[in-house]
Amino acid sequence: MSAQELVATAKAMVAPGKGILAMDESNGTCNKRFEALGIAPTEENRRAYRELILTAPGLGEYISGVILYDETIRQAKKNGTSFVKVITDAGIIPGIKVDTGAKDLANHPQEKVTEGLDGLRSRIAEYYVMGARFAKWRAVITISEKIPSRGCIEANAHALARYAALCQEGGLVPIVEPEVLMDGDHTIERCYEVTEEVLHTVFNQLYVQRVVLEQIILKPSMVISGKDCPKQANVVEVAQATVDCLLRAVPAAVQGVAFLSGGQSNEVASAHLHEMNARFSSILPWSVTFSYARAIQQPALELWKGDNANVQTAQKTLLHRAKCNSAARNGKYSP
Ligand code: 13P
């Protein structure tokens, strides 16, 4: 794939009024979410649920790309049509999660490093042939009194950069996702400080590995109070802190920023995205949109409950959240 094609894909992923739907939960995570709602954690249920999402009528009006998991990219509708065909027919770009998960980082208690570099070049080649045009790799940074450590931040930034370089070589646009978790009682100021350090380190490593910034999408977490912090920053404060932090740490050449929701409620995730676009779009050098999983899917999953009879109601709810976030991407959301 040429440089122009990678740039065109990255631009399309963050096009006005559109954002990315993450539906790349590993089987373990998907099963956990099913079990919490009494849905049997079977391969057929995972397939049926993903069919519900991908066949929601008009999904492509709000969604530019969907991130799939290895099992899902190989699956098909009940009638045999492959999911990749369903996605492309809807005008949506298929993407694929390629990391193999966050594992304990040796000598760093409570910290993780994301794995998946071994054999990645050939997996990328296979996914490209299957129709994927972008990929995702998620690094996880935890905040507590003594962490994150430099060792954790640097190991994750290095892996993200090696992954991104391999993606570009193989024709996929890399989504670079350094997630600073909301878990903990830290303040928004502490989240700011950690996010800024993480982003600076990631962009330094992307530079060292010769990653082309115009051909990536950054998927950061927002700068937000820890979920157990007694003082919760409001929507305006979160939008301001997130924009300030990103303006200081994210080069203007980056094609787009697509936030994760990270456990924020559906409405709050939309409100934060709206506020950033409504207040700051004239000074932001990149398009700012969503790449949400839970904040789009959760209400639909709760309505579906594993029952075919609930498919249409669940699809309506899914489309509603997609539409709300599409409006927020344009700074036009009202709850
Ligand atoms: P959430 O929006 O649920 O945080 O998920 C986004 C994602 O893809 C995490 O890697």
From TrEMBL:
Entry keyword annotation includes Protease: no
Record pathway: Carbohydrate degradation; glycolysis; D-glyceraldehyde 3-phosphate and glycerone phosphate from D-glucose: step 4/4
An example Gene Ontology biological process: glycolytic process
Enzyme Commission (EC) number: 4.1.2.13
Catalytic activity: beta-D-fructose 1,6-bisphosphate = D-glyceraldehyde 3-phosphate + dihydroxyacetone phosphate
SUPFAM superfamilies per record: Aldolase
Keyword Lyase belongs to the record: yes
Family: Belongs to the class I fructose-bisphosphate aldolase family.
PANTHER family from the UniProt entry: FRUCTOSE-BISPHOSPHATE ALDOLASE
NCBIfam families for this protein: FrucBisAld_I
Protein's UniProt name: Probable fructose-bisphosphate aldolase class 1
Organism of origin: Chlorogloeopsis fritschii PCC 6912
